[in-house]
Amino acid sequence: MRQEPRTRAPRNRRAPIEMDPEEFRRVGYLAIDRVADLLARIREVPVTAGESPSEVRAVLPAGPVPERGAGAEELVEEAARLLAEHSLWIGHPRFLGFITSSAAPIGALADLLAAGANPNLGGFVLSPIATEIEAQTVRWIAELIGYPVPCGGLLVSGGNMANFIGFLAARRAAASGDVRAHGLVSEPRLAVYVSEETHTWIQKAADLFGLGTDAIRWIEADANRRMNLHSLERRIADDRKAGIRPLLVAGTAGSVGVGAIDPLPAIAEICRRAGIWFHVDGAYGAPAAMLPEAPEDLKGLALADSVAVDPHKWLYSPLEAGCAIVRDRKLLEETFRYRPPYYHLERRDKEEPINFHELGMQNSRGFRALKVWLGIRQVGREGYVRMIRDDIALARALFDRVSRHEEMEAVSCNLSVTTFRFAPRDGAGDARREEYFNELNEELLERLQSGGETFLSNAVIDGKFLLRACVVNFRTSLEDIEAVPEIVARVGRQVHAEKRGGGKRSR
Ligand SMILES: *Cc1c(COP(=O)(O)O)cnc(C)c1O
């Protein structure tokens, strides 16, 4: 039985979500003003208000989903105020926490343009200019980091996803049969080799893509947290003997803990001889390969079969932007392409277009390339070289400052990551020294992270809980860096005194 429609089909339709051009212009200028206000004040505000989840929840509108709508102007104004008052500012010059960068202002404008035009980069027909901009962006990123072009690749949401793309291409290449049709059931057991410094992406990948985390061979790292090559070769040989097939070796270019760079050319050589896929996780460090003075170990990423780079880290794009690069573009297609009957995206009369849904995991895709492309064009290679160099120099300056500080122990400095700890003289000596310093620094870090003066994160090396400063921040300057040891020492002394005094806050 056919149901009568309840509503008459509208002729002169005015949908509640539409905005007329005048209103859009007015509210749009307002939004831009608010963003400009945020950026103008970013040096003056605390890095964070350090509020608890329930405190933040309390500022949201109360009650269930609103039955009626509200005016765009008032909503934008309110959203801007909420963000202004309850955010943590990754772009603050004293945010040195995780490897997540200050965002280029031009990227915010690019995202507005991108959302305004709203192309769907799944297929060329839905996004002609946007698709070609993305293709050029991927080529340019490859060129910047010294990776041979032409190559395959695409933008994804971040480093994890970019690493997944490399992993899946490797899985496709390593499988003896049609892994896409048969899965892994008819394959020999597979194994992947990474240093113990490797980011958790490898666990997610091994888990999600059917190998299981037991397939990960955690190769020991040396004193500088770089993959031990003898162990790598030994594990590969042992596995081969046991009938286990190596799927890939993933080297890291700038580890998440201390910024360590694996000996990439040597790993490439081991992989070449053994016929194993060589992947590089350059989510953080790959852009530093564009510096003429970059170590050869880093430049070795050019030898990889696939590389992950994060424009939302050291190319300073706003979140989210990751980039997966694969040497063999055809293989990328063979890893991801399906041509369902409901997509008629190939032209019989024209050249073959790029349809990005065939090169990765997403189907509908947004125009995240625009912010990266405009960023590259705004500053050029020269601009990135300067900014990355400055970040590295600032991390070194911090290392020097903490080395000279009586109450600090400087531990490592690689790329733009410096680790150290607060180690007061009178905290040492007793049998519980290490244990005490770990507790002290852990508590100190929590205090720093909610205090709003600066924001650091941590690394754990050889059982030592360390403070970690990552300078991926074009707003940070020497004055900010010089303030860090002072802040850490002041807050550290407080925590130390509280703990010593049978402190109220001690655990
Ligand atoms: C940040 C990072 C990742 C994860 O990248 P996301 O963009 O957060 O997904 C992976 N590996 C390394 C070395 C990283 O620094």
What does this structure look like?
- The protein has 507 residues and is α/β, with parallel strands linked by helices.
- Helices cover 43% and strands 12% of the residues.
- The protein is built from 16 helices and 11 strands.
- The strands form 2 sheets. Strands 1-7-6-5-4-2-3 form a 7-stranded mixed sheet, sandwiched between helices.
- Helix 1 runs parallel beside helix 3 (72-86).
- The longest helix has 36 residues, at 369-404.
- It is globular, with a radius of gyration of 25 Å.
- The mean pLDDT is 95.
- Pyridoxal-5'-phosphate (PLP) binds next to helix 6.
Rg for CA atoms: 25 Å
Structural class: alpha/beta
Distance between the termini: 70 Å
- What's the tally of helices? 16
- Number of E strands: 11
Shape: globular
Widest β-sheet, arrangement of strands: 1-7-6-5-4-2-3
Instruction: Please give the share of residues in helix.
Output: 40-55%
How would you spell out the order of helices and strands?
A: HHHHHEHHEHEHEHEHEHEHHEEHEEH
Biggest sheet character:
7 strands, mixed
Mean pLDDT: 95
Concise description?
It is built from 16 helices and 11 strands. It is an alpha/beta fold.
